[in-house]
């Protein structure tokens, strides 16, 4: 780890990183419980275990930068500064949700936040970020685009085509592969002949780096370097963030495909646990950590109450804010 970058962060900034990670963890755990209670319909793909990636990456971004996400997108959106109350309202399928109940868990979006959307299509956000990076380059304001995706997405044509064009055009984009070593239920070694996804950057003449994704400060450092290159016109970077999801692919998946002992090995490298150890080594006492945790719990209590009190959408609103095209090619809204 680059000590200069780490030392540039004061205690308050590090506490903010921890608060964001803990918020994501508890938001997801509570969402799973709320779904079990019947408040949240549809699928959930928990981000539990990968918090260090989202928080580390987003901590290196500025206002005006944009990100695209995946089907496992709650953590990315929260790390970018989203309101958990409106997010819960969207998961509850209520009017006060970010997308008025039309996005749900898989298609949350808030353009004003620079969050260009979660995506139910594997690899679907990669070309969107690439296009956004082209726009940012044309604007000439030094802004960047970041795309999050999993290891399975790097087998998709959208990944290879996007990286090819991004390198050819020197676009200001950072590709962040959250390698949790499973494409849905399939371990990485059964769907890829390589062990380091970052090596795929070589084919497109771009920088490729492997980072321990459970170390939030290392993620921030790697992203700062990639973003600096992008802003300087030096083109894209592929970051392979090695991490692990603690729960199944979706809520309800028992993950029996995991070999014995694997989960326990990764739990010992829990990103929150690692960062708590870092904070305590720096002199942070348990009381401050507990105060942060209590504040998050209160925020999420309020968020769940907000969602539950939010009205259900009306049938008459079903086609509002929806883009459609008629059989003769006319666009309707």
Description of the molecule:
There is one protein chain. By secondary structure, the chain is of the alpha/beta class. The protein is 41% helix and 11% strand. It is built from eleven helices and nine strands. The chain has helices spanning 3-7, 11-36, 51-58, 74-79, 84-91, 125-139, 157-168, 216-231, 262-267, 271-281, 286-309, and strands at 66-68, 145-150, 173-179, 182-183, 186-187, 207-212, 237-242, 324-325, 331-332. The chain has a five-stranded parallel sheet with strand order 1-2-3-7-6, sandwiched between helices. Strand 6, helix 8 and strand 7 (237-242) form a beta-alpha-beta unit. Helix 2 crosses helix 3 (51-58), helix 2 (11-36) runs antiparallel to helix 10 (271-281) and helix 6 (125-139) packs parallel to helix 7. The model is unreliable at 1-7 (pLDDT under 50).
